[in-house]
Fold each of these.
Amino acid sequence: MQLQRLLAKHSDRVTPLLVVRLPALERTAWREGRHKARAIEKHAAAAFAAAAARTLRAGDAIAHDSGSDVFLAALTAPVRDWAEASAGIDPRSALARICANMESATGLDIDSGWTTFGGDPAVDLPAAIGRGLIRGAQERERYAFFSALGHELRTPLASIRGYLETLLDGGIDEPTRTRFLSIAHRESLRLSRLVEGMFEISLLDLQATRLARTSGALDAAFDAAIDACAANASARGTSVLRAPAPAARVAIDADRLTLVLINLIDNAIKHGGIGGTVAVGVELGDADRVCVTIDDDGPGIPASDRDRIFAFGGRGQSTAPGNGIGLALVRLMLERAGGCVDVEDSPLGGARFRVCLRRN
């Protein structure tokens, strides 16, 4: 590839690489034949070149191999500090502008990302492309998370402000005053939970190594989570049935495991039927792993939604209130600890969440 040789010439300094991929090309070749895919590729290549010409500098380079669904741009034009230069050569801004132009011209969905490399004459371009696409997916996921979080923060803030302003205006009888303060307090607690969830997620990558080495008592986390969910269960008339938890140690600290279980049990209470049942059990599969199951008697989760509900801001078809953060946080914490979570049909008729952890 021409870009491979060009990058090798600039390997003595850090070079930003923009990666654009069109997943539709592979799908089209499979379903409609290579001729149709090549026509789309030709149109996309022209759109990529035109977008790059409007966005990049004369000294930057672009490349695309015929038959490939990947389009590349290297910001090789010399600048004193590319990260602080104008928006036209900032990697994120340049990539966003190129992608917007390509999507407008082709009407196709685009995967994109960017990375940097330098200091090695033997440039591993496929690895760099992979890093860029992974980074792009992570940045889009985080953007979706913070967008969802920002939306969710506005609601309790507006509620708290509204009730406090009413109280400050005066003329409120004591029972109403007490009720308004209670609502404002409850909303402040919900706001606190949202903020804590945001910090948990932002710190997980930094704490990945430490999380892999921690351990906690399963029974302690089990008891703490059941107690923490008792008030919500009582409010909905839900019976929480629990199996005795063994005195096993698992490869995640008790506080984080408690948070995982609280999210899942509260989720089951919220999505189960009013006056219904939630069952929390433990499965000892072998000497190395232990699984906790949380069952509800709600409508269940369709197979098409079972991956999406664990994404930032992702929600299923339920009309129950929620922000799409709790399950994303659960999966992230478990994955960092070497565990996993999945969802399937429950014997109670609703959903079963299964948390599997390594034993210590």
Note: Residues 221 and 257 are 6 Å apart (CA to CA).
Amino acid sequence: MKLFGLDRNIYVAGFVSLLMDISSEMIYPLLPMFLSSVLGVNKSLIGLIEGIAESTASVLKAFSGWLSDRLGRRKGLMMAGYAISALSRPIIALAAGWHAVLAGRFVDRAGKGVRTAPRDAIIAESTYSASFGKAFGFHRGMDTVGAVIGPALAFFLLSASNNNFREIFWISLAPAVLAVLMIFTVREKKEKFVKYAGRPKLSTGRFDWRFKFFVVIVALFSLGNSSDAFLILRTQQVGIPTALVPAVYLVYNSVYSLSSMPAGIAADRFGRRRIMLLGFILFAVIYFAFGRWADRATIWIIFGFYGLFMGLTDGVQKAYLAEIIPPDMKATAFGIYNTAAGLALLPASLIGGWLWDHVSPAATFYYGAVMAAMSAVLFIVFIVVVPKSGTDTK
């Protein structure tokens, strides 16, 4: 039985992501402030920590996807990834210096690297191609509901604990453990697997040029998409009190959550590439606004539009990928896509931190706006050049 046309695996994956994001987002909005105010870390080093954590762990996404396709199994890798992320909570809670925070962030992102591709493959294999946008949009929406609840809890606990960051880090372990336990209810769609014949290779050889061109565009865009830690630091820099920072982040996640599924449905109806192009253009405007107009009043509005950008692009990009990749290489494709985007985050965050410390905070965001504009132009070329075939019709 399918509720609203979605398989039960979609709902399980959604609730698992909801719980893990509650845990993650109780920590993430507080971590830049913890590093800068408690541990005395400068912005360049914060950028290095985030860049290393995201980029190094991203290598695992391609390997995990390849391994999942090779073994013909998704569930075990998905569970292992979520369990690894849960282990990062005590590491961060006990951190006495930035090295331990880096280790905790690396473990957390390594877990994400292991779980992302097999989980996305489960979603793709549990729905029909005509509903990819709705399925991935629902998943991103549920994920972001957790990202709404997490900052809300952090906001409440920050006030109740008199800004005791470590206490909140410990509490965040509980929903992470629940997320891992819930994965036991996932059902493998074994009939949709086609195992590799012989010894598989981790390469892009079996993907057509649409996939390769799209991955290049995403990687270029990611070079300007520095860590969200800089957005959080921007809220402090313009004068938002520490206790209110999770509330600002809550605005972003609320809009992200509410827009994800409608954006997926719109993409299924009007064309996924059109929605993605709109997202790239919107990002360029948003980052320019972060640099030019951010102040105590407008920062709330800008964060809301940033949430809209995420809703327009995150799930829709994966839905588009699902329709242009071979059915027996779905996890590998999602892994390569995530790895390309993740590896670009290291130079993006390093450049963002250097610009903040040596030029100005605004320069970090102007750089991101320029890279997004360049990506939008290249994506227009992609739309014009790529032939219309199959479900890739708009």
Note: Confidence is low (pLDDT under 50) at residues 193-199.
Amino acid sequence: MLYYHLVANASAVARPGLSPDWYETLLYWKLYSQPAAVSGITRLQGLDAKHLQQFLERIPETIPRQVSDIVELVELAGKYQIPGMKLGTALPVRSTVLHFLYPNIVPIFDQMVLKALGAWSPGANKNLDILCEYIPHAWALADQHTQQLTGFQETPLRLVDMALWVVRDKAQKAKRNATAKFASSWDPSC
């Protein structure tokens, strides 16, 4: 329900009125599974409402399905020194914020989708080049399965995000099992 509330509030009509409370709630939604991160956002130190408003005023109501336009917005988000998005390595939070602003265009990019795709390595979710490769892949998956993804409240792109989130556990377990199987059968004397 929180996801739907955040998306509805981020619509182009309501966007000028988005508040630090909306942003803090979005961060909570994004980071709820990370206790240390959640404790750090309960009181966003240094969140200047003016910076958030300036960022929101600079972004267009809609964007085309162009990776370069998303990259521009990702980079723009870092210029406003908004907690959670100010570090150059904050791609997961930046992509999440942009997803809420453009739910049909911007996929959420984080380690979970990379794990599901077997593309995870430490720091991969902080790499802009990998984000640029992932975006068209997410679009292709959404396009490929759009016919099967009708009748849901979520956009096809969000359903792909959700499916990858669920699959990531299975992918990690399969990888661990394969590694364990190899380790148990490996004969170092060969």
Note: The chain has a mean pLDDT of 79.
